[in-house]
Description:
The complex is a heterodimer of chains A (124) and B (424).
Chain A: E1 2-9, H1 11-15, H2 19-38, E2 42-47, E3 55-60, E4 63-68, E5 77-85, H3 89-101, E6 108-113
Chain B: H1 4-26, H2 29-50, H3 56-75, H4 94-97, H5 103-117, H6 124-134, H7 140-146, H8 151-168, H9 177-199, H10 206-226, H11 231-244, H12 270-284, H13 291-304, H14 313-326, H15 330-343, H16 346-353, H17 357-360, H18 364-376, H19 380-393, H20 397-412
Helix pairs in contact in B: 1-2, 1-3, 1-5, 2-3, 5-9, 6-8, 6-9, 7-8, 9-10, 9-11, 10-11, 11-12, 11-13, 12-13, 13-14, 14-15, 15-16, 15-18, 16-18, 18-19, 19-20
Protein name (chain B): RNA polymerase sigma factor
Domain DUF6596 (chain B): 183-283
Domain RNA polymerase sigma factor 70 region 4 type (chain B): 114-165
Amino acid sequence: MLYAILCYASEDVVCAWSKEQDEKVMADLAVVQEKYARAGKLGPVARLLPTTAATTLKRAKGEQVVIDGPFAETKEQFLGFYTLECDHLDEAIEFARELSAVNPSGGSYEIRPVGRFNRTNIVA
Amino acid sequence: MTDPNWIASALSAARPQAVAALLRYFRDLDAAEEAFQDACLRALKNWPKNGPPRDPAAWLIFVGRNSGIDQVRKRAKQAPLPEEDKLSDLEDAEADMAERLDGAHYRDDILRLLFTCCHPDLPATQQIALALRIVSGLSVKQIARAFLVGESAMEQRITRAKARIAAAGVPFETPGPVERSERLAAVAAMIYLVFNEGYSAASGEVEARAPLADEAIRLARLLLRLFQTEPEIMGLTALMLLQHARTPARFDANGEIVLLEDQDRSLWHAKMIAEGLALVDKALRHGKPGPYQVQAAIAALHARAAKAEDTDWQEIDLLYGLLEQMQPSPVITLNRAVAVSKVRGPEAALAMVEPLEERLAGYFHFHGLRGGLLMQLGRNAEAREAFDRAIALANTAAEAAHIRMHLDRLSGASGGKPASAAMH
């Protein structure tokens, strides 16, 4: 089963990290990912740019409208995701635990099974 | 999550919002700062024990406000408020905080706090120092280091600035739309000053001053989150990101300036560029161009060119023309002349530069560019003269060294590489 592990945290807090702090967190998270990547279980991973760079397309009264920023104001923002091939849910939870242990943002990880996954060849 | 790093980040992230609300309550910067400090001390004691609150800013505002009121009561010899240490979170207090959650209120609080720092009576250096101290929460020591002055001199500068503001009085009523957009423009200008204070640092100072550029970007993102649909705030944020992205390539191993066209573009910060380009695209969709957007669009054209030769100088020439119309300035015309030299050649550029002599006679880049254009045209004696004047006006050793390199080329051989750009 493929799981998406969605990372939510306060962008204010993450943006307040110094460059060194940010690099340290990324390096610590990379160690966790590396273990799963070597086991051939880790799929695409993305860290998203701040929500200030986001645009939202929504429908209002049947019309499509493009608005600046994310759709809703929330305390925590969607900052990035991992995908992981797991034998069972416990394995996905364990991965999230390991990520959370080295992530000082105080945020949360939503563990969500993937229903459909299109494999592509784009290189970001 | 109560590790000390998280608490420090949470306090620093909540600072602008909390100090801004406390300023509204106490209508006095010192009182607001003192109340915030007090709330932070209590947070450091309380959070590791009781766990972090769901909304750190709300907690700090609530506790800070009580402690501020407490101070007032103590002075009035009245009974103090009950200890709030027993609170693990603010469930019951949240009704009190409901007005704080009103988006517009919170927006105007932070805008007011930022605007307070850019009071027109304050000289630019005091505005910057005050914003870094009050909004960003940098220590006086950190700010003094960034400005290359002693701690006590900086302390005095900040105290004087605060006294001026207290004397001038800050308007506390909710601003109308016109006033709000005026405040926004003043704050944007102040943030760009903070950025340039960091960005224009010479190589030896980069380490001490570069954090100012980071801080300016953080303030701009904060402002953009509050005013999500303001294309000029998008433009300002993009402009700073795109310029700051070049920082790792701007100085060589000897600390000398590397011109934009000679920079190793693989050293540019790709993530900052991606964010900057996304913001430029977003801003331009609004069809309400302004000076920050145009400058960001110019920076974006540089960022999009994988090699210096790929730069779309024609488009840059057009954008500088637009900028000249928006805010006529000889420095902008000088920058446009760089683009013109690439598109139409050195003669056309020189014709554009010469009339600026009177107004830019004391400006390093004027003589540097003029010398470069003359050199391209083979008018070496005049070029040498212009370079000599540039050296005399150089602000940093690196600038002087760069011009000296051209002079060496002039004495070594004829022609040589064209000098360029006030941009680096």
